[in-house]
Every structure is written in structure tokens, then in C-alpha cells.
Amino acid sequence: MGNHKKLLQFLRPDPAVAAAPKPPPPSSSDDDDDDYACSTPTTPTTGATTPTTATTNSAPSSPFAMSPWTQLPGLGFGAGDGDHHGAAGDTTRTGLLGSLVKADGHVYSLAAAGDLLYTGTDSRNVRVWRDRRELGGFRSSSGLVKAIVVAADGRIYTGHQDGKVRVWRRASSPPEDPAAAAHHRRVGSLPRLRDVLTSSLLPSQYVETRRRRAALWMRHFDAVSSLCIDAAAGLIYSGSWDRTFKVWRVSDSKCLESVIAHSDAVNAVAAAGFDALVFTGSADGTVKVWRRGSRGRKGRDTWHAMERVLREGDSAVTAIAVSVEARVVYVGSSDGAVTHWQWRRGAAPGAAPRNGGALRGHKMAVLCLAVAGRVVVSGSADRTISVWRREEGADHARLAVLRGHTGPVKCVAMDEEEEEDGAAGAPRRWVVYSGSLDGSVKVWRVSESDGGAHEDAMTPARTPAAARAWKGASPSPLRAWTPYAATPEPKHMGAAWWDRDVDALACVVAIWSVTTSAARGPGGG
């Protein structure tokens, strides 16, 4: 996507930063961008610990480094390997490059665009980063930032808790002024204001919401949970907790269609990039496949018809990612599994995809997914990031488990690292950005080759028994697909609490504690 030489050049180990005090709380001023702190991992010396900002070079060596289990192939601890360095010191190894920390709340969304990184938080701020430095940011008037996508023309679309999609554009500036890259201005919203004003006068433009209230069909009346861009079709898709997904035309920001897709909150929407397919995943446990058609004058309007139910289960669907070149769709769910299906090339329209099975690398819910090349990355509420490599057919090898976050990993993004001079023929490498509810963004390097893994930056999981995903090894409650003609009424699974802030779980525990105390009375017992 972009050139990451500058980013990798500045992400150097800095042991002093790890001991730095916690930054002060952010100022109430919207323009105050001085209260940030950036940290990078120190150069590790043993294979015993996972990378955190508290790691120092003076840490004693662990006997685990001499364990025979660390001599397995692909762990970076073979015989004769006496000089171990982290990813920051070895440009071919998978591992942690650095951490970007800002006293700005939980990180809910991020997007990489060229040499810029955009991060969205629950403080309504979108921060702009380059070369390990925060350049600045921009702030919306309301609503935490739950989704960010960047269009090819440079426009940034942000989805918010208040149900709005806002559009931003970077201010034009001379190339010699790098600081101006952080200057963004709002250029509109979805839907457009004039469309809202025109439609509000017509009773036929209103629909009844689940709260027995009337709302314009073109507006989301609940949080926007997901955004995606189909560049080839010139469309933007937005999914919302109001159970719908909406289709927008990029050229004029017009809302073309609103589809009531599920019986519960829509947590993910993804354009396939092939066969005019769109996938939606919901808290009701289903993944649905929609096929896009054209209508209207000159075919500029769209319509979407459901083709099949790809998945149906009790666990909520939390994330969807698509590998366009391999025609594979990955689905993350609250049971910790990543299921995947592949569409065959040359198959007749409407042909059923092949169910490839499930990747099980997490103990808690999968919250986010990203795919690039043959590499699949999944972030989870268990605070880890699993890295998989797609092999021939439906098999996948788990390359590593990246550890370092102290809170659930809410969002991930990938960008290809530019090859260095003289590195022709080397395995492809990727820069992975992970945002967490611990308030930090971590930057990792991931290689398609599993030979450069290093224990200091991750916990490898390449073993003969767990190297590949299995097909049919254990019974699955999920259906591979259901033809549209035979699709039953989806089962309503209640509120989308798996994707709605993790703080909700704390509220449930607090209510249970108060109730228990009241039942026991003043005497306890």
C-alpha cells in the first residue's frame, strides 16, 4: 500500500521509554496534541519473555531459552544460533517493532494509508501518525470512532457510535511541509445534508424503527459498526447495530439502498471484490451472502438480493475479512474460531462455496481480522494476535501468536513492507498494526516464512499436531451454507453484547455483586 521505510527506520528500541512515567490526562482542548507518549520495545536478549514496554535489556536470562522445546524448527533457537535479536534488529524476523501510546482512551479502529496511520478512539478523536510520531489529528462533534476506511482519492470515512458516517479530506499542502499531513478538514457526511432535508418533507421516506419511532430510511439510527469500500464498483458499505447495511455511491455520497439484513446488530460488512458479492455478519450468529445487481437509469443504482446463509450458529459473528486473489472469506466469531470458505474460479453463479473448516487459535472471542497475501491475522479478547499462513487447498499453518497487549485487541490492519535493495526473492513481509482497549497501538513485522520467528516477539505455535487446520476433525454446530430458497427464519440471539464495549461485562458483574450483597443482608454469610 505504501512505503514503510521511514516507519521502520524510526521504530528503534529505546529502553529509556519503557521506564517513562505515565503521560498526564489529555487536555480538554480539542487542539491539544502534546500529551502523547511513544514507546518501543527493547532489544530482547533471551527467548523467555513476551515483548512489553516494560522489558529492559538488563533482565536476567531465563532457563526456558535452553529448553529442548525451543529447539524446534522455525522457532529461531536452533543449534549454533547464539546471537538473538528482536525484529527491530533483524529485518527478516517476525516480531514487535514498536508501540504508539496516547492518553486518549480505548483504540477502536485504525487504518493505514501510505506512510500515515489513522487511529480512532472512544474520545471521538482520530489521531494521525507518521514515523512513530503523532502529527496531530481531528475530532468529531460526537460519537466514538468505531470504523475508519481510506478511499483511493484520499478521503477518509469514519463510522461513529452516534450512527453517522463522516467524511474528511487531508488539506492540500506543499510536499516540503510534512507537518501539514495532519491537517484534515471535514468535507461532508453520509447521508448528505441536502438529501436529509429533502427527504424529511416526504412521509414516504420514513421507516419504523424497533423503538416504534420513525426515522429516515437513509440514516442509521444506531452505531455504525463497520465500513468497507468496493473500489471497483465505486461503492461504500456501512453496517450498523440497527440491523441494516446501507450502500453509498462514492462519487456523490448518495445513499442508493438500505437493506434490513439481520434480526440483530450487524457487526461486520465486507465486499468480496469478486462476483459482485457482499458479506454481512451479525450478533444473531449468521453470515449472509448478498449478490449485487444494477437498476435505474444507466444502471447507476444498485439492489442486493440474499443468495445464501453461509453460517448459522449460537456464537455472534464479530469480524469478516476477504482474500480477493484466493477468493476466500474468513469469519471471526465470539467462540474464538475463524471459519473460512472458498469460492471456486469459473464456477456457475450461485454455486456453493467450499467450507474449509475452522482455525482455532484463541481462548476468547475473535474481535478483528485482516488478510494480505497469504497471511491472515486475527485479534482476540484474550489479548493475543494469531498469525496464519494459507497453504494449498484449505490448509493453514499458524506461524505465530503475537503477545504484548494488556487489553482485548479490537482492530488490526496490514500493509506490505517494501523490499530493500538486494532482497529480491526474499519472503514477503508485512507491517501489522494492532489497536487495543489498553489504549495502545502496536506495530509488528510479519513474514510469510515461518523460519524467522523469534520467541521474544511472540509465542510460536508451529508444531506437527497444530501446524494445519483440520476439516471435519470435530463436529461443528455451524452449517456450511443454506440455499436461499430454503433459508429458515434466523433465530434472534438478543443484544450484540459481544461487540458492544467490553465495559458492559463489568456492569453485569457489578450488578450481580450488588444483588448478592442485598440478598445476604447486613450480616453477610
Automatic annotation (TrEMBL):
Name by which UniProt lists this protein: Uncharacterized protein
PANTHER family in the record: F-BOX AND WD40 DOMAIN PROTEIN, OS12G0594000 PROTEIN
Lineage: Eukaryota, Viridiplantae, Streptophyta, Embryophyta, Tracheophyta
WD repeats: 217-258, 259-290, 359-388
Coiled-coil intervals: none
Xref: InterPro entries: JINGUBANG-like, WD40/YVTN_repeat-like_dom_sf, WD40_PAC1, WD40_repeat_dom_sf, WD40_rpt
Pfam families to which the protein is assigned, alphabetical: WD40 (PF00400)
Keywords annotated in UniProt: Repeat, WD repeat
Record PROSITE patterns: WD_REPEATS_2, WD_REPEATS_REGION
Region annotation Disordered: where it falls in the sequence: 1-86
Natural source organism: Setaria italica
Biased composition (Low complexity): 39-63
